[in-house]
What does this fold into?
Amino acid sequence: MEESLALQVVRSFIAKINAHCVASMCELMTDDHRCVDVFGVTGQGRAALRQAWQTYFSRVPDYRIVCQQVISEDQTIAIFGTVSGTDRHDGVRQGGQPWEVPAAWNVVVRGTRVAVWQVYYAAPLDRRPTDAAHGASDV
It folds into this structure.
């Protein structure tokens, strides 16, 4: 069975995330792209998300998504798999060992671009924000 265009867009977006290629990720975002992190914090707009992803990749330089199952219905894609990485602050590893957790994503594609990227996973306790103004979130 041939992949839908929406699924191709999502797979390409994940490949760009795994390559940490923010410029290419932004090319696949709608102008009003919305990203909702594991804490429910929403980022809106390509420019804001460019900065958020750059910050996140500096904090988690080995961030990686592995897809294990994908369910597609029209322009909405559900992804199930794992996410992994190692936290760093000012170039120094934080929190000990690298982490890997089960994760799910809800993605909405509009045309040939990602309009909504929402991630769900249980963030390790030492990675959870202590207040609403926690800065760059888990995108």
Q: What stands out?
A: The longest helix spans residues 5-19.
